[in-house]
Design a protein that fits this description.
Keywords: Carbohydrate metabolism, Cellulose degradation, Glycosidase, Hydrolase, Polysaccharide degradation, Signal, Xylan degradation
Shape: globular
Strand order of the largest sheet: 1-2-3-4-5-6-8-9
Protein name: Glucanase
EC number: 3.2.1.-
Catalytic activity: Endohydrolysis of (1->4)-beta-D-xylosidic linkages in xylans
Number of helices: 25
Largest sheet: 8 strands, parallel, barrel
InterPro entries: Beta_cellobiohydrolase (IPR016288), Beta_cellobiohydrolase_sf (IPR036434), GH (IPR017853), GH10 (IPR044846), GH10_AS (IPR031158), GH10_dom (IPR001000), Glyco_hydro_6_CS (IPR001524)
Helix content: 25-40%
Distance between the termini: 40 Å
Structural class: alpha/beta
Length: 656
């Protein structure tokens, strides 16, 4: 058990947002000074030989608040869009550098370093480049673009993102389709780096990408293999940029491993485009500490200054709010580098905005615990224990029974407060994070009847959910709230819809009041239920603003990619309509082969990515136990809902 983390998160709720910053220990970071050194980001980073930079937009340089923060806090500048291909060579051979020059000259006049971003990228590419189909022509165009742009800023740029985002998302570990790869083959990356070295031998040459922060991801491994091969064959590569666009959960647990593994190849690593949804203090501190703990992590760049400047403005992901005021994440970041945010007075007298913060937002249960809890009494565990000689038992034990999976609570759970208290207490004693599902809303399935049941009345439900939350109390937990509740409006009257939304809003209020260390995700069904705009409206009307986030794909089979695209679309609608976004989680327990259009025990399905932080959503979670029946249907004919079917589980492990 990490006692420091636990004590920090168990402080009074009004101090929760500040506690995480105070508990960062500057002396533990490699390269970080043991004593307080500075009170600004750039000055403190410089104490360990690093830079702390930001993306800059030329169009905002007339904003005095913007430039005031820029000049005070940052020692490195990255043009946000002004050095990209569509800005610098909109037509073949016709180069325009006005806005890029404006940023470069201003940075140079103030002694700020300059990062070049970016030379070769499949996006923000003029149509004339994308239409080239002759390899020799494209190679000449690419080399000329690299040489011309680099010569313009030769001697002024310390690091160039030579190639940006060349690798595909997903599990292939291969390069994405683009005009460069499709016409020139994968060798275009090597060609770009060799041309760049010739153009400016003094600049550090970087490969830059997103979603390469988790060490085990196929995309990360693909980039790692490329860099390793480059180093082995003398291709001039000096650094790897990890963009670090994180959800509210922050960096994956393996982030420091990823940094150190790339560094071990003999390249620098840089955090190049950092922003974190909702800017949690712990997430920022963990990101910075990971860099400080790796000697070859040479600097950090945040992707914008104020929340209003961010490309993710609806998620408020930066260190300064829309007025340019330092946020708690700023202080956490400075403290993680060994600086002084001067928070002693703030702890004894928190500002009004923090004092009024809801308890449920004041703690991050993922940082209060060390991994997820494996339910010792799951249906899979019980079956394995009862059937040790069965030839399927070993595979089911390894692949299902020992994967952290949610426990569902409903009318069958007896005294609900006692049940949730015992379960979360047992997890807490082992320093693990439990996953729970609350599944007891009144008139649960108006339309289908497949999962009918629930509390006997709205008032009975209100009492039940209050006890549910009260049983959890101060234990860290993750709760998925009422799967299916927002999906079956088609046969409900407006009065019934209003009643249901009122129950959900009330439930969220109870969790905020009674379970301050719990993240609650209001279920939003799956992409096949409702379009993103409709689901955003339903979530909002059901009170999702009070929740930590929303959940997707519970007990369903749609792929993670389909769900993350849908979750992002829902967030765009939330941002556009209501001015906020929310993190989301995806149930991946049975989506390894995707959906065949059937929902009830379909054949040929496969288990998906085991429970983890990150992975395209805030978390990928096993909410349904693979092998538990959906009912008397499909390959589960003759079974009842929730019954564990070992043959179904075994086939899901192998995907047939």
């Amino acid at each position: 058990m990490n006692l420091l983390k636990r004590l920090g998160c168990r402080r009074a709720a009004v101090l929760g947002l500040l506690a995480a910053t105070v508990l960062v220990t500057p002396g533990t970071a490699t390269g970080a000074p043991d004593a307080v050194q500075a009170s600004t980001l750039g000055a403190q980073a410089a104490q360990s030989g690093r830079y702390f930079g930001t993306a800059v937009a030329a169009g905002r340089l007339g904003d005095g608040t913007y430039t005031g923060i820029l000049d005070r806090e940052f020692t490195s500048v990255t043009p946000e869009n002004e050095m990209k291909w569509d800005a610098t060579e909109p037509s073949r051979g016709s180069f325009t550098f006005g806005r890029a020059d404006q940023i470069a000259q201003r940075a140079q006049a103030r002694g700020q370093r300059l990062r070049g971003h970016t030379l070769v990228w499949h996006s923000q590419l003029p149509g004339w480049v994308g239409s080239i189909r002759d390899a020799n022509t494209l190679r000449g165009v690419m080399n000329n673009h690299i040489t011309t742009v680099m010569n313009r800023y030769k001697g002024r740029i310390h690091s160039w993102d030579v190639v940006n985002e060349a690798f595909a998302d997903g599990g292939s570990g291969q390069m994405r389709s683009s005009v460069f790869r499709d016409v020139l083959g994968t060798g275009f990356v090597e060609q770009a780096f060799r041309t760049a070295r010739s153009a400016d031998p003094a600049a550090k040459l970087c490969y830059n990408d997103y979603n390469i922060e988790n060490w085990s991801d196929a995309k990360t491994q693909g980039v790692y293999r490329m860099v390793r091969d480059f180093k082995a064959h003398g291709v001039p590569i000096d650094c790897v940029g990890l963009q670090a666009h994180f959800g509210a959960g922050g960096p994956p647990g393996s982030f420091q491993t990823t940094l150190s593994s790339f560094a071990a190849l003999g390249v620098d690593v840089q955090i190049t485009e950092l922003d974190i949804a909702q800017a949690p203090t712990t997430a920022y501190a963990n990101t910075v500490r990971a860099c400080m703990n790796v000697a070859r992590c040479t600097g950090i760049t945040v992707w914008g200054i104020r929340d209003s400047d961010s490309w993710r403005s609806g998620e408020n992901p930066l260190l300064f709010d829309r007025n340019g005021t330092k946020k708690p994440a700023y202080h956490a970041t400075l403290t993680a580098m060994g600086g002084t945010p001067a928070l002693v007075a703030a702890l004894s007298s928190p500002p009004p905005a923090l004092a009024a913060a809801r308890p449920a937002q004041a703690a991050d249960p993922t940082t209060m615990t060390n991994g997820f809890y494996v339910d010792p009494d799951s249906s899979a565990k019980r079956w394995v224990a009862a059937n040790p000689g069965d030839g399927r038992a070993s595979a089911i034990n390894a692949s299902v029974a020992n994967t952290p999976t949610a426990r569902w609570f409903g009318s069958w759970s007896g005294s609900i407060g006692t049940a949730t208290g015992a379960y979360t207490g047992a997890a807490d004693a082992r320093d693990k994070l439990p996953l729970l599902v609350a599944y007891n809303i009144y008139n649960r399935d108006y339309c289908g009847g497949h999962s009918a049941g629930g509390a006997s009345s709205p008032s009975a439900y209100a009492n039940w959910i209050a006890q549910f939350a009260g049983g959890i109390g101060g234990h860290p937990a993750v709760v998925v709230l009422e799967p299916d509740s927002l999906g079956d409006y088609g046969c409900m009257s407006q009065a019934q819809i209003d009643e249901r939304e009122g129950m959900l809003t009330g439930a969220l209020a109870e969790f905020n009041r009674r379970a301050p260390n719990t993240w609650v995700y209001l279920d939003a069904g799956n992409p096949a239920w409702a379009d993103a705009a409709t689901m955003a409206r339903r979530l909002h009307e059901a009170g999702v603003r009070q929740a930590h986030g929303f959940s997707l794909n519970v007990s369903n089979y749609l792929t993670t990619a389909e769900n993350t695209a849908y979750g992002d679309a829902v967030n765009r609608e939330l941002a556009a309509r209501y001015g906020y976004t929310k993190p989301f989680v995806v149930d991946t327990s049975r989506n390894g082969n995707g959906s065949n259009g059937q929902w009830c025990n379909p054949a040929g399905r496969r288990i998906g990515t085991p429970t983890r932080l990150g992975g395209g959503a805030e978390m990928l979670l096993w909410i349904k136990v693979p092998g538990e029946s959906d009912g008397n249907c499909g390959v589960g004919g003759g079974s009842t809902a929730g019954q564990f079917l070992p043959e179904v589980a075994y086939k899901m492990i192998h995907g047939y």
